[in-house]
Amino acid sequence: MVMKKVGIADLKSRLSEYLRAVRRGETIAVMDRQTPVAQIVPIRQGMVLRVREPAPGTPAPNKIPSPKPLNLNIDIVQLLLEERQGFRCVERWVQTARSLN
User: Fold this and answer.
1) How many angstroms separate the CA atoms of 2 and 88, rounded?
2) Residues 33, 19, 13, 95, Cα dihedral to 10°
3) What is the pLDDT of residues 55-101, one digit of tens each?
């Protein structure tokens, strides 16, 4: 069986269509820039999906206070640029490795 591959933007715009395919038994691979990041699979017969209610006394998510910001001496922009540059190096390496095969 060939698995359908779909990009995130396409999945968002045509979610109902892909969910109908999953209901028919198909598996969908979700891709982020040609990298698989998730699979949407049908729930097998007999498998029970239970959604539990929060425990009594649990505050609503919008009532939980945000943590106080950390006072770190870090240049966030520089940190993001370094992380993205490292990711690009890995992407380039993967593309090179694929082209050699």
Assistant:
1) 30
2) 10
3) 999 998 899 888 888 887 888 888 888 887 776 666 666 666 676 66
Q: pTM for the whole thing?
A: 0.47
Task: Compute, in degrees rounded to 10, the torsion defined by CA atoms 62, 67, 68, 74.
Answer: -120
Residue with tokens 């425990």: 55
Rounded CA separation 15/6 (Å): 10
Q: b vs e for 67-82, b when ≥16 Cβ sit within 10 Å of the residue's Cβ?
A: eeeeeeeeeeeeeeee
Backbone angles phi, psi at 29, to 5 degrees: -95, 125
Q: Which CATH fold topology does 1-44 show?
A: YefM-like fold (3.40.1620)
Phi and psi at 12, nearest 5°, equal -60, -40
In DSSP notation, 49-76 reads ---PPPPTTPPPGGGSPPPPPP-----H
